[in-house]
Amino acid sequence: MTIDNNDNYSLFSGINIDNKKKFLDKLESYKTKPVNLIIKLNNELINNDSLILSLVKYNSFWKKSDKSFILVVDDYVVSNNNLVCVPSLEEAIDYLFMEELERNV
Predict the structure, then answer these.
(1) Per-residue model confidence as pLDDT tens digits over 33-88
(2) 97: Cβ contacts below 8 Å, ≥ 6 apart
(3) N or C: which end of the chain has fewer CB atoms below 10 A?
(4) DSSP string, 30-95
């Protein structure tokens, strides 16, 4: 798992079944000072219902903190309307900037 910190967001990538717990522990640590998050999931994790349900909980916390929580899922469909899912990193960054503009208006 890698975490890239940028000016406006942090990007989580390289997450797999073996480091899922480490990933969730890291998300928990970010709750003390939430930042905008983009999380790139591979298809193995997109189909993991327990992970998706956990992410819904974190998503609602991030929204209450006025921060973005965006999943990059390639061409897969996540059947949960509470999560923001986009197919590419570029679209995730665009979506994040649109949410920032909405919050500033």
Answers:
(1) 999 999 998 877 777 778 888 899 999 999 999 999 999 998 777 767 889 999 99
(2) 8
(3) C
(4) HTTS---EEEE--HHHHT-HHHHHHHHHHHHHHHHTT--EEEE-TT-----TTSEEESSHHHHHHH
**Cβ-contact 41, 55 below 8 angstroms:** no
CATH number, residue 68: 3.30.750
Where on the phi/psi map is residue 14: left (φ > 0), alpha (ψ -120 to 50), or beta? left
Residue ranges making up the domain that contains 56: 2-104
Cα distance between residue 35 and residue 88, in whole Å? 20
Which token pair is 85? Answer: 């899912």
**What pLDDT was estimated at residue 18?**
87
Torsion angle (degrees, nearest 10) of CA 64, 35, 33, 79? 50
